[in-house]
Amino acid sequence: MIAYATFGLLGLLSLSIPVGIVLFLLGFGLDIFFTPFPLIRGLGNLVWSTSNNPTLIAIPFFVLLGEILVRSGIATRTYAALDRWVSWLPGGLVHANVATATMFSATSGSSVATAATVATVAMPQAEKLGYDPRLFSGAIAAGGTLGIMIPPSINLIVYGFLTQSSIPKLFLAGLVPGVGLALAFMVVTVLICIVRPSLGGTRRIFPLAEMLRALVQLIPIILLFAAIIGSIYKGWATPTEAASVGVAGALLIAALFGTLNRDVLGQSLLGTVKITAMIMLVVIGASFLNFTLAAAGLGNELQSMLGNLGLSPLGTILVIVGIYIVLGFFIETLSLMVVTIPIVVPLVVAQGFDPIWFGILMIVLIEMALITPPVGLNLYVVQGARQGGRMSEVMVGAAPYALTMLVMAGLLIAFPQIALFLPNAVQ
Predict the structure, then answer these.
(1) 317 contacts: CB under 8 Å, gap ≥ 6
(2) Against a cut of 0.90, is the pTM above it?
């Protein structure tokens, strides 16, 4: 059954069938060949109960929040403000790419949306100021990955739903590794530009008065993040309610800046419908596959197989990390996550690992998949914004940051408290 599920999944994906449909087809196959009961008869009830779950209502709200911020021009103001504060470092404006991506990750919850936003704003500056296109574009692609780590993250919401884990705890667990990765990206950029100063373009120092004035542009984003995350951890709102508060805040910010109009609102709503429909198809398909996998006994079969290998719990985790790295080359990130969670998470929990910790480790590995070819979505998003040059330049530029993520994965394995400290502290 393991071979059937593996080769069936890869074979269907290789036919370019939409991932949500692949999950349903694989579930149907498992039902027909490996279970004695007609599980398909429960499909209608499963689809309804999954889509009717209150937790998932947070997804369209967070998507809409990001769409409003992107389309109302707030990204441009944020980028210009951060440019005033970080361009004195070796690497100059490259740090503004990472810093802006970090700020928008704390509100949008989507890596691709974050990368697209920063790339659209930043790319015109690269040629004008003489930056190396590889490092400049690679930093944008890497910074965009933080959108699925730093709360509020749509991927963490999906993980929490599929594993029945606490979403507020997942948000807290992702905060330190997310901010740590952002700082690590900046340190890597500094080191690269110290060794090769020509890659970093011109370092610019702005007057203190201008830097202080720029802070005004950052206040709305900071307040919005504080309202969303603070309301969750204070117990004033659930993640779904906090997401709706975030949307109201984004609309208010756009209105105060004078950029809220019918076109912006219409484009934001249309983008939200498209993205949410795609996510929900994948989530419902994953729920059905999870149902059939459990009924077919795949989890027990996997545990038995790994038990026969005689691996220690650490060895099992290292094997799983290797599998995610390899699969990340070929499978889109949300799809990779929802396809593997029903199989891998029960196995990890059976080995005695914390599902909250593993969720953060999985997100780091999935972040790597966003900037590793041939299917790294952020690479294509940034290349599209460049409107010129070779794709290989973006890949080469992102490579040091992918290695940084691998180091973070190793640190999480060696020191689980990096992820678990905050969730345990607020219990």
Answers:
(1) 348, 351, 353, 361, 413
(2) no
